[in-house]
Each structure stands twice: as structure tokens, then as C-alpha cells.
From TrEMBL:
Species assigned in the record: Aulographum hederae CBS 113979
Name of protein: Phosphoglycerate mutase-like protein
One GO MF term: phosphatase activity
Sequence similarity: Belongs to the histidine acid phosphatase family.
UniProtKB keywords: Membrane, Signal, Transmembrane, Transmembrane helix
CDD domains: HP_HAP_like
Listed transmembrane segments: 426-450
Residues annotated as signal peptide: 1-17
Length: 471
């Protein structure tokens, strides 16, 4: 029996050793921060350390010259900006977390490696021991999310807000609101006056837990029974999952849908670049709020893999999508799509140096890996890839969505094309002009009849005598 187990482990190790990682996409939560209820929120020193350690971990896994699963063709020490795409919403905590992560992923290279000789013969060394500057792009949703107690407000998606609001009229919400009334009243002494008595209800479950969690980490005098703290966490999880995902209404999960589209688009660009013999688009990294995690957990059916996916993930947690192959790879022979696979991994928390992320099966399947085409097919059932798709899902009709809005006053069948009535805009304009002309001519006829006037040609008028010009 022992021999069989050893043989199996050896085969697993051999299979992993033959894998080549072609590209990676990571979605990460920010590090430890100050509470939402006391804006503006800030990344703490602990949070800075957490995301820096996460970046260092992924450097050792994917980037460094001695990486355990190196990304094929990636620059090990000095960053190649064409290989990396980093994004975050316009948010102090999330953008700062992205910067801290990148410092661990690509640390300073030393001044001797980044010294430049100018035309006049003088030398210039990069500051901060060769600190590497990596730009962070802004994503369209999630701005100011860490100052926002209810994260759907940060999506700017009308239907997502409406859908989330409907949770507050659900039977589940009503039951928890009523059954936890005494529990929240008894927590008042632990929130230091941040909330008044009326606010101490399940309606503010996450904001209350957030205050308690920050105190649990940073306040040495905080002394709350562990059982009560855990119950506040459980209730916060139920509250936030209810706002982020609903099996019968995908609009609520718009942030997860948008993330899915970004993942597929980026990794598809990795494949396109590889087929063209390029080493660009190797590593995509995005920072975002926990609601996006929860939305994606629900959409991808990760909740079947573990009940933990019903809960808010810890600070500095990360989802990882590895694009890999088991075939030989070279600069002249990039694998075919049929030979590519995806592995999903998740790490809940910031203990980057003490544990590896865990692989989980997506979409309710048994295997933790699946062919690239199957992955794309499953993601495409809910992924948002274009602005038009986002506008349609959200029901937005102004701003960037104005050009996709249905024609005013017409029934377009919901496709946003303006053709539901069977009359195009151009034809409608012609009809309108003709109707206007008919009205004008009708008015002229009435005036002529009532006034006793008649229409006379210019030629006849020019030759008419005084008697002919009278009525």
C-alpha cells in the first residue's frame, strides 16, 4: 500500500514537472485596512506587508529565475512592461495594495543594473536602489469601493443596484433581521459609538463586523467573546453573499461577470501573442473588492466545491487562473489551443509564505483542470466582454451607454437596436416631414378659403390689371 502511494505521488510530481505555464491571471483583494465606517479608509502597515508578501510569493512561484512554476518567456528580474498588465479601481486602498504587491513581484534590481550613461559621458543611477516603476491601469467599476459600505453602489450598474436592493425585501433577509435583533443590540458596547441603537441591526451586518474585525486585529483592549465575534462574521457573510449573487438574477453579480470577461480576454491575448512568436501578455493582475469575489464564486459554481465560498474572503486573498500545457514549447512551436488547459487556485488570506493556494474545480465539475475551450465556453455563459454587453446587462442608457440605448418611445424588443417597430430612424424622419408638410398645406387652404383669397401664378400676376388684382 505504501509503495502504491509513493508511486502515485511520483507520477503526480512527474506530470507537474512536465507542465509549462503559458500565462497567469490573478485577482486579489487588498491588504488590511482601516474600517469602512470611518472614511477615508487607508491601507495599514500590516496590509502593506500582507500584499508585499503575496507579491513575493507569486514572484517565487512564477517569475524568478528559480521559480517553482515559471511562466514561459517571462522576464525574471527586470520587468518587461509588455508582459505585465496591472489594474485596480480608483480607490486609495486598492491602488496602494497593487503597488505593494508589485514591489514584492519585481523588487529593486540594484543601482548597478540600472545605470545609464548619457551623451556627455556622465552616469545616472536609478533612485531607490533600482526601484522598478510599473503602471497601474484603472478599471471602470469599483471606484471608491473601500469607502463604500454597500459595494453595488460602486458598480454604476442600474440593474445591479435594483437587484441587490431586492435582497432587502426577501424572506431570508426578513427572517435574519427579526431573529438577530437581540444579538445586535448586545453588540453596541463593542462598537464604541460608531453606530447608534437604530443602526445596530442585521441591515448593517457587514459594517458592524468590519468595525469588530479591525478592533480584533489592532485594539489590544478589545475583549469580545469569540462566539459572538464568529456569529457576527457568519451573519456578515450571509448578508454580503445575498447582495452579491442570486441564482435567478445574474444582474446582481455584474462585477463577477465583468471580471470573467477580462480574464478570458487577457488569456486569449496571451495565446494570440504566443502564436505570433511574441512573449507579451504573460501576467495579468487585478485588485478588487470582496463583492467581486463573491459574485464570481456564485457564477462559477465554486460554492459546490466548498461552503467557504459563501463567505467574504480574508484580506490579501487571491484567485489564480493558470494557463498551461503539457506539450513541448519553444519560440518556433507554440502549443495549439487543443493542448492548453486552465487550473483555478484560491488562497484565502495573507499567509503567503506558509501555504500554497489550493486548486478547486470550476463550474461544478470534478476535475481541477479543464481544457481551454471548455473553460471559455463555460465562462462565456455569463462573461461580459464589451461595453455594449455591460450596458445591456445593466440597463444603463446615458454616458458611455447612450449609443446603445433603444430608440425613445419605440418597442425595440429589448435588443437595443431600435428596429423593434419595423420602422428605421431614417424612414421615420421622412414620414414625420411629410406629415408636417400636409399640416402646413391644410392650414394654407383654410386661410385662403376663409379670407376669400385664391392662388395666382406669378406670370399672370405680373400682367394683371388693377381690376384683376382685387378679390
Amino acid at each position: 500500500m505504501a509503495f502504491s502511494q509513493l508511486a502515485f505521488l511520483a507520477l503526480v510530481a512527474l506530470a507537474q514537472a512536465q507542465e509549462t505555464v503559458l500565462g497567469v491571471y490573478i485577482f486579489s483583494r487588498h491588504g488590511d485596512r482601516t474600517p469602512k465606517a470611518l472614511p477615508p479608509t487607508k491601507l495599514t502597515d500590516l496590509g502593506y506587508r500582507e500584499v508585499y508578501d503575496r507579491g513575493s510569493y507569486y514572484r517565487n512561484r512564477y517569475v524568478s529565475s528559480s521559480a517553482s512554476s515559471p511562466i514561459y518567456g517571462i522576464s525574471a528580474d527586470q520587468v518587461s512592461l509588455s508582459q505585465l498588465a496591472v489594474s485596480a479601481p480608483a480607490d486609495n486602498v486598492l491602488q496602494s495594495s497593487a503597488q505593494g504587491f508589485l514591489q514584492g513581484l519585481y523588487p529593486p534590481v540594484g543601482s548597478e543594473l540600472v545605470t545609464q550613461t548619457l551623451r556627455n559621458g556622465s552616469s545616472v543611477q536609478a533612485p531607490m536602489n533600482g526601484y522598478q516603476l510599473i503602471p497601474i491601469a484603472l478599471v471602470s467599476s469599483g471606484s471608491g469601493s473601500e469607502d463604500n459600505g454597500w459595494l453595488q453602489d460602486a458598480t454604476n450598474c442600474n440593474n445591479a443596484e435594483i437587484s441587490s436592493n431586492s435582497y432587502f425585501s426577501s424572506a431570508e433577509y426578513d427572517d435574519l433581521l427579526a431573529s438577530t435583533s437581540d444579538f445586535y443590540s448586545n453588540l453596541t458596547e463593542y462598537v464604541n459609538g460608531t453606530f447608534n441603537g437604530i443602526q445596530m441591526t442585521y441591515k448593517n451586518a457587514y459594517s458592524i463586523y468590519d468595525i469588530l474585525n479591525v478592533a480584533e486585529i489592532h485594539n489590544s483592549s478589545f475583549d469580545m467573546p469569540d462566539r459572538s465575534f464568529q456569529e457576527s462574521l457568519w451573519l456578515a457573510n450571509a448578508h454580503e453573499f445575498g447582495l452579491a449573487y442570486n441564482v435567478s438574477d445574474n444582474a446582481r453579480a455584474v462585477s463577477g461577470m465583468q471580471l470573467a470577461g477580462e480574464i478570458v480576454t487577457y488569456l486569449n491575448n496571451t495565446i494570440t501573442a504566443g502564436n505570433a512568436g511574441k512573449t507579451s501578455n504573460k501576467f495579468g493582475i487585478q485588485f478588487g473588492a470582496y463583492a467581486t469575489f463573491l459574485s464570481f464564486f456564485g457564477l462559477s459554481n465554486l460554492t459546490e466545491a466548498s461552503n467557504d465560498f459563501y463567505g467574504v474572503n480574508d484580506y490579501a486573498s487571491s484567485m489564480v487562473f493558470e494557463l498551461f500545457t503539457t506539450t513541448d514549447v519553444s519560440s518556433s512551436s507554440f502549443p495549439s489551443v487543443a493542448d492548453m488547459q486552465i487550473r483555478f487556485l484560491f488562497h484565502n488570506g495573507s499567509s503567503a509564505n506558509s501555504s500554497d493556494p489550493t486548486a478547486f474545480p470550476l463550474f461544478g465539475q470534478d476535475s481541477v483542470t479543464l481544457p481551454w475551450n471548455d473553460f471559455v465556453g463555460n465562462m462565456s455563459t455569463f462573461a461580459i466582454k464589451t461595453t455594449e454587453e455591460w450596458c445591456t446587462t445593466c440597463g444603463n442608457t446615458t454616458g458611455i451607454c447612450a449609443e446603445y440605448a433603444p430608440a425613445a418611445g419605440g418597442d425595440d424588443g429589448g435588443d437595443g437596436s431600435g428596429h423593434g417597430s419595423g420602422i428605421s430612424t431614417a424612414v421615420g424622419g421622412v414620414i414625420g416631414a411629410m406629415v408636417t408638410l400636409a399640416v402646413v398645406l391644410g392650414l394654407e387652404a383654410i386661410i385662403l378659403l376663409v379670407g376669400g383669397l385664391r392662388v395666382v401664378s406669378k406670370k399672370r400676376l405680373a400682367g394683371a390689371g388693377p381690376s384683376e388684382m382685387k378679390a
